[in-house]
Design the sequence.
C-alpha cells in the first residue's frame, strides 16, 4: 500500500528544489507512487511547444524512485475517472478531454486502494478527492507536517523551505505568500 500518489503538478513542483526532492525520495521511497497518466502527462509536457522546461527533470526524478506507475483498469473504473475529470474540469480553465486526467486517475486508484493520500498541488483536485473521501495533501502540506514534527531539521531549514516557496512563485506555480514560519504554524492558506 502506498502512502501517497503524486499528481503531475506536484511532481513538477517538488522537482524544482533538489534538497526538497531528495528529502521526498529519501523519506517516502517505497511508500509513494504515481499513476501511468501522470507519467504520460510529463512526457507530453516535454513535447509541447514550447516545452515545459521542468518536465524532463520531474520525469527523471520520478522515474528514479517511484517505481512502476499504477494503472486504473476496467470500464467501471475508467468511467469513474472520466466523471471525476469532468467535475475537476468544470471548475477550471482547462476543459480539454485530457485536463485533470492524472488527478482523477490518482483519486480512483486511491479509492481502490482504500488508503493513502493524493499528493496534489491543485486545490480543486484536493477538494474533489476529499469530497470522495480520499485524503489529500499538497507538497507544501507535507513539508509543513515534517517541520511541525521536527523531522529532517538539517534539510528543512528556513532558507531551503523559503527558497522552495520562492521558486514556486517565480515559476508561476504558487500565488500564496507563504513562508517557513507559516508552515511551522500549520498555516497553509489555500495549500491546506
Sequence:
Amino acid at each position: 500500500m502506498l502512502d501517497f500518489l503524486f499528481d503531475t503538478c506536484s511532481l513538477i513542483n517538488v522537482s524544482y528544489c533538489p534538497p526538497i526532492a531528495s528529502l521526498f525520495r529519501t523519506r517516502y521511497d517505497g511508500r509513494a507512487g504515481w499513476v501511468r497518466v501522470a507519467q504520460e502527462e510529463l512526457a507530453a509536457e516535454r513535447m509541447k511547444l514550447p516545452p515545459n522546461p521542468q518536465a524532463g527533470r520531474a520525469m527523471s526524478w520520478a522515474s528514479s524512485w517511484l517505481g512502476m506507475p499504477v494503472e486504473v483498469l476496467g470500464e467501471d473504473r475508467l468511467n469513474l475517472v472520466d466523471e471525476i475529470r469532468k467535475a475537476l474540469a468544470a471548475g477550471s480553465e482547462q476543459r480539454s478531454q485530457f485536463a485533470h486526467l492524472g488527478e482523477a486517475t490518482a483519486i480512483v486508484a486511491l479509492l481502490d486502494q482504500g488508503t493513502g493520500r493524493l499528493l496534489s498541488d491543485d486545490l480543486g483536485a484536493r477538494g474533489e478527492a476529499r469530497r470522495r473521501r480520499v485524503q489529500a495533501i499538497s507538497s507544501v502540506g507535507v513539508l509543513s507536517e515534517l517541520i511541525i514534527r521536527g523531522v529532517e531539521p538539517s534539510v528543512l531549514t528556513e532558507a531551503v523551505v523559503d527558497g522552495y516557496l520562492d521558486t514556486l512563485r517565480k515559476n508561476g506555480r504558487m500565488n500564496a505568500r507563504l513562508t517557513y514560519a507559516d508552515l511551522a504554524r500549520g498555516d497553509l492558506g489555500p495549500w491546506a
Residues 4-138 form a domain with the Rossmann fold fold (CATH 3.40.50.1010).
